[in-house]
Specification:
TIM Barrel; alpha/beta; 17 helices; globular; Urease, subunit C, domain 1; seven-stranded parallel sheet
């Protein structure tokens, strides 16, 4: 048995014998008093739709909603209300991760760590992420987790779930899972995490079966990982989308190349999950992507993150240091030479060389009018919550103003996730759900201010945040 498999076996034993294993302290908890009225007084507001920070306002939270917004110092707090002075702060809508896996492990891949979904959910909330679209998970866990959050038995952000990912036989992510997982996990994980369909008929039948679980979206993988892996055929992808749309379910596509993006667009998908990250987009293709009117969830952080690890330059962020054990953050270097097969190593070697192309692709599609949304794709090296803040910084570096980057994780993200031009959350306005984040400083001037979180409100309740380190 190799040393790198030992942590995996220990984690599995811990999961099976939970009573005998200690748990980390929670990162967030509900206050004993529950939801009491809160007045945030004279606070500058970023409303989620504008690209600038508004003048200081009074914002009253009551009964889980934004009850009233008025001029600074104009609202009298109701009896028993908590008052927070907003000087030096900025009020934002709760952040939305449009590509956030809740059942992934973010430790180094070669550790073989076992996922801790409850900890992932806490980490999202600690970092001000109050809504997550999870576009891929185990079919026997994703929908149960979503339901437990909705009924209040599990503390976490509002969760939307796709469940298993559709792909071609031995396509991504099936090929990746078979390359990395030991046999005693592979036999279970692959069929529960992936739907491998070879024909339109198989695709339609698989969508019909999954629809019984009520997925919020259907996810299609249109990308080759490892690099020689097969890619789903156009007619099969189209059959998946049509079957999903016939049931009122949107379809999203994992892409990697220009060809992938065009195949997904021709199939009628509702979002590109990942941007074109493997190559530059030719000038003549940019107008075609813009004309498709499909949101572009870049998730540059995951590919830049693997590039950072490959180059040995990964440095932890403020929120990572607050939520992740130091030994995990230090564990990404050095990379074991034999941890992955050559096909996957070739994939990771490609990512540093395409870093600037990814950034330029975001810049150019955004300039052409494509709606860019923020998602982080939690996995090895991309931590639930901190990863989205890294993505905001990348979007800011790659052509979006800070206000546009924030909008990609608030109001615009809410419109897509809720499938509603007037979504119930993601916007600071009277009557909206009081999922909010209060940060120190002005993120419109310094996008890094989003990491300096003073308070997180989940449906009007001010969460108790406990740095885990």
């Amino acid at each position: 048995m190799t040393a790198r498999r030992q942590p995996l076996l220990a984690a599995m034993a811990c999961a099976a014998l939970a009573a005998a294993c200690s748990r980390e302290p929670p990162l967030v908890s509900m206050p004993p008093a529950g939801a009491e009225p809160t007045l945030i007084r004279a606070v500058p507001v970023f409303d989620g739709l504008a690209t600038e920070r508004g003048a200081p306002r009074d914002v009253l939270l009551a009964d889980g909603r934004i009850a009233r917004i008025g001029a600074a110092n104009s609202i009298t707090p109701p009896p028993g209300a908590t008052v927070i002075e907003g000087a030096g702060l900025t009020l934002l809508p709760g952040l939305i991760d449009v590509h956030g896996h809740t059942g992934s492990a973010s430790e180094p891949t070669w550790w073989g760590a076992f996922p801790d979904p409850e900890r992932n959910l806490q980490s999202y909330l600690y970092c001000g992420v109050t809504t997550v679209l999870d576009p891929g998970g185990l079919d026997d866990e994703s929908f149960e987790r979503r339901a437990a959050i909705a009924d209040g038995t599990l503390l976490g952000p509002t969760m939307l779930a796709a469940g298993p990912i559709f792909t071609t036989p031995d396509g991504h992510p099936a090929a990746l899972l078979r390359a990395l997982l030991p046999w005693y996990l592979r036999w279970y994980v692959v069929p529960h995490f992936v739907r491998e369909v070879a024909t339109p008929e198989e695709a339609r039948a698989a969508v019909a079966a999954l629809a019984e679980s009520g997925p919020d979206v259907i996810k299609i993988a249109v990308d080759a990982i490892p690099l020689p892996a097969p890619v789903i055929a156009a007619d099969v992808a189209r059959a998946i989308v049509e079957a999903a749309h016939a049931r009122g379910i949107r379809a999203v596509a994992h892409i990697g190349t220009v060809e992938d993006a065009l195949l997904a667009a021709d199939a009628g998908v509702d979002a590109w999950m990942h941007g074109v990250y493997k190559e530059p987009i030719p000038d003549e293709i940019v107008p075609r992507l813009a004309a498709a009117d499909i949101p572009y969830v870049a998730t540059s952080v995951v590919f830049d993150g693997y590039a950072d690890v490959a180059e040995g330059i990964r440095a932890p962020t403020r929120l990572e240091r607050e939520t992740v054990a130091p030994e995990v953050l230090d564990g990404f270097a050095p990379v074991p030479e034999d941890f992955a097969p050559e096909d996957l190593t070739a994939f990771t070697r490609m990512l540093p060389a395409t870093r600037e192309a990814r950034c330029e692709n975001v810049r150019r599609v955004h300039a052409a009018g494509v709606t860019v949304l923020a998602g982080a794709d939690a996995q090895a090296g991309v931590f639930p919550g901190p990863g989205l803040h890294r993505e905001l910084a990348i979007l800011s570096r790659c052509g979006l103003t800070n206000g546009e980057a924030l909008r990609a994780a608030t109001g615009f993200a809410a419109r897509f996730v809720a499938d509603d031009p007037d979504p119930p959350y993601g916007i600071v306005a009277e009557g909206k759900v009081a999922d909010l984040v209060l940060v120190e400083g002005d993120p419109l001037a310094d996008i890094g201010a989003t990491e300096r979180i003073r308070e997180v409100f989940r449906r009007g309740v001010r969460l108790e945040r406990h740095p885990g380190i």
